[in-house]
Amino acid sequence: MAKYYLLSFLILWFGFNKATDHNNGFESIDGANSLPIGWSFQAPNYNTIKLDSITKYEGKYSLSIENTIDFNTPQEVGNYFQIEADDTSGKEEGLIELKGFVKMDEVGNHYAGLWLKLEGENGQLAFIDTKQAGTHNWAEYSIKLPYTKKVKEIAYGGFLNGVGKVWFDKFQLFKDGKPMQNLRRIPPKKAQGNTSYLHGSGITHVQTNANDITKLAIVGQVWGFLKYHHPYAGSGDVNWDGELFKLLGKTLKCNNLRDLSYSLEAYIDSLPKVKKCDNCKMPSASEVLMAPDYGDLFTGKMLSASLTNKLSYIQQNRSGKQNYWVKKEPGLGFPLFVNEKSYDEMVFPDAGYRLLSLFRYWSIINYYSPYRNITEYHWNQVLRDFIPQFLVAKSAEEYTLATLRLIATIKDTHANIFNNYQTLESIKGKYRVPFRADFVEKKLVVSGYRTDTLDIQEKVKIGDIMISINGERIEKLVKKYLPITPASNYDTQLRDLPWNFLMRTNEEEMQFVVKRNGRLIKLNIKTLKGKSNYRAPEQKEKEAYYLINDQIGYVNAGKYRNSELPQIEKMFAKTKGMIVDLREYPSDFMPNTFASYIKPFKSMFLKLSTVDYSNPGTFVITDSEYNGPAKNGKSYNGKVVVIVNSDTQSQGEFTTMALQSSPNVSVIGSQTAGADGEVTTIVLPGGIYTRISSKGVFYPDNSPTQGAGVKIDFIVKPTIKGMIERKDELLEKAIDILTNN
User: What is the Cα–Cα distance from 298 to 308, expressed in whole angstroms?
Assistant: First the structure.
């Protein structure tokens, strides 16, 4: 599901500056990197943030952010300060105002703007931002927050969330209308200024026998545990990626588990001592939806008693402060994995960095995935299974495929490798055939044509059943590609297989054997570059809403807008039934508007779980969602049938849950994508960007939608015969239910 500040940030700090203008016009430049002195930068690849001497509001430079790929990771520039005692002007309260000039060019998908944040001793006190999109010339924007004596730090800047380009210039900060000048810049975190290991880990070869795999799994578990529990590891004052390489350098020499325990204990003893925490506690058992799993750390079977005791002490006295590597999204509460480095230049990372990639991903899932307990295999076993796969990779392609197989094990349709990753795209193929195929009745069947190449209809027919592609049987190809097709369930894997792998190639021609009317036919099909729209002949675009007849209304969630609800209420007033088609991703948020229109009372329709940030790995129910009845008191009285299939995903599933909480609703179709909840981004070495479902979504009875999909009252699937006859069998069934019920 969407959006809003899904991120993996690199922060680079440049200098310590106390000029009275705080370099708010970007005129003081660091010659080493050609970026403004004193500003910090959060971005997965900070090469997209640049000074611009041509497009500017005033002075010599503006600062620009540009992004061409939307991977739900905002990029940010910021100025961070502590407030000097003499800047309070003798007042305990007041108003902080940030002004800044912004210019935008084709900002889309999300938005860009200014941001302002106030921090106290125990974290964030207030945050505000502006959100603009589109193309606009230079304009001054202003945002304000109330100031109190609790404010100890002020941060401000600009951001781009989505695609496009934005420029910033002439920031100004005021308190009660007067410029704030006497501020002390917060020193940079050492982790971001540390360039050690930037060009390699120094680890090029690692043994992969059973004993070595066991030792490496323990090292990975300890490294990840410390990252999210030890206050020094989470402070940002140490390059924790680099610490892994140091740790590997020491532990790879260990001959047995006793030596490994001794080495790990010596390393922990070298870290700053953890202070006793008097208020650290676990939530009660009744509050916990999923407890943490520490793997081998506390079983007493792998590590020495002395090391186990020290790890237990760290766990019991973990830091309650903001962890540098993960923070709570301020609005919706899901985790944001900030400050992770992407190491884009390492298309094929060395052995140490490949282990870093595995350990980073494994640790994030282990401590911050709400669905760790439904992965394909036990998550601790996954770590052991993938250590040799990552180590034996001999090329960028093998490393990428190992990463994709790892991602597939979490069984999450939100998860994949994104940002048009070129290594993966070259594996999939740069060419596609000019027709579409889908799995129907367990067979791969031609279902549509590329809209700009309709002459293919003379050669390939709707309903043709594919027997083989390039000489390989379909069954064999499915078995080959399933392990690298991330999805929450088998139906959704079959949904994605044709588009991602089966109908793609690096050749200019593909060979097919198809069955048509009982006969086998060989076809040589020319392939085409690029993507296009595919549809069946005579298939028409459905309108957002219309009357099927005088008794039944139809709503297409893929085109519906909330602004149209009053017209729908009027049009459907005399109908006895309504069909809501959720086989397309909703174009607007319906759970609190449309779903309330069909519901005669208020009730809960789902629960949400989130990680307990003070106890990583522990998940608790944090929110519940309610809807109904209609605001005007005139709820829809007829029956409602909701249509779903494997294309019903994320917000579509969320919407289905909201609709089916009303007693007059039935859901028909087939298993949905099984990926609900907010989505967050993870960045891995080699510039690999992936995502996970980051909040748990459950029905009021605590049954999950992840993996299983939404609850369905009547299973209805299309048939090959119906496809050939150009029938929408699910829509026909919905009409039948409303007509004959």
Answer: 6
